[in-house]
Amino acid sequence: MGKLLFILATVLGAALSLPAAGQDNAPDVLVKTVTNDVLAIVREDKDIQSGSTKRAIELVEQKVLPHFNFTRMTQLAVGRDWRQASPEQQSKLVAEFKDLLVRTYSNALTGYRNQVISFKPARYQPADTDVIVRTEVKQPGAQPVSIDYSLRKEADGWKVYDVVVANVSLVTNYRESFAAEVRSGGIDGLIKALQNRNKSLEAKAGEKS
Amino acid sequence: MIGSRKVEASQRRLARRAGLAALAGAAILVQGCATSGNPKDPLEGFNRAMFALNEGIDKVVARPLARGYETVVPLPGRTVVGNVFSNLSDPWIGVNNLLQGKVREGASDFGRFLLNSTAGILGAIDVASEIGLEKHEEDFGQTLGRWGVPDGPFLVVPLFGPKTLRDGIGTIADGYADPVYYLVDDVPLRNSLYGLRFVNNRALLLPADRVLEEAGLDKYSFVRDSYLQRRRNLIFEGLPPRNGDEFNDEPAAKPGSAPVPPAPAGGESTSAPAAR
Question: What is the β-pairing status of strands A116-119 and A130-138?
Fold first, then answer.
């Protein structure tokens, strides 16, 4: 009996702590929940605060990644050249770009110092499948920095496909430099450039810790 | 002592003039320089050299100064410094909003200035933001952009950083409209205020250094593309006209056709579309 109660409690607990799973959650609620969850952890984690990229990456992979659509992000960043990439090249591009973005986002987390995030009221219709959720990072004595998330409704919930920081789209900002790589070395040249970048960043992170 | 200060001041002014001269020089070079293939950045070779120079200055002078400042001045002090300069900038931001036909935003900027200068003790406390009068970001380069002046070539100006030709010209106007420039007659004091503002602004950007260093395939193009994208979005209040070359994986959407309507801008400049 005690064991049954325990199992019941565990299942119930898991169901409550995973509101996104299978449910048609509102995109603004999703952004708010994930942001607050992640920042609550960062506030407690001394390793992340002291600049441990490794810990931050673990956190991002666990909490943030499931809500991102990296294939779409890569498509948008590569732009027109995407169509000329073979399925194999496409999956390599997605994997490498994902690595780079996760690392960048994780590093941003290590710079977090109790700034206040405010969530602006989201305006969208129930039928919308593509929405922007606006947030703002407030720090004392400085202008607030806007962080806007573009989300699209997919079969397994809302997925972020772009993050716009201070009016700069993280995804389309890569378009020019990606196109330049493709012009000079083809799709494989771009894959190689991304691989090299990730490798050198990994080596640098290794030196630090 | 005063003499050496004067020398220092004139050197700084010289540096400033040199920056502007380089801007003008670069503008002349537009026709003559070898092109790099990127239509947005015809002076890429020159720009990359200036970028490297600025990076060097930042590494050796600006960043260490900002770090030291952050260590010496506690956060409440830095907040007051930031607020006071921010308050001084609000009237010119208001003028630019009015020049762009955004009367409501302009009025709000002047309201901010009045409130913060009085209740906020000469701008030390940003009372206006707390009661919901939002801080805006406007400058003369944006006004020119709104009036239809094209970007012109991208430029990296020594000491001033990334600019477009239009925004470089805007920056010169902003410099003359800067209260620190026209209210403070004492040159050493004025230059100290310029210095303090610069170091305070640089200190605010310190947390972004690492991201900027690591995010791009190539820092120069990452910074350039961020700058151009940001300016474009600032001018059009986050809703710039589409280029027509947007990649879209929806077969139904033709290039250049209206994109999925984005959620209306939450909370800010709701009157912007009407004013456009």
Answer: antiparallel
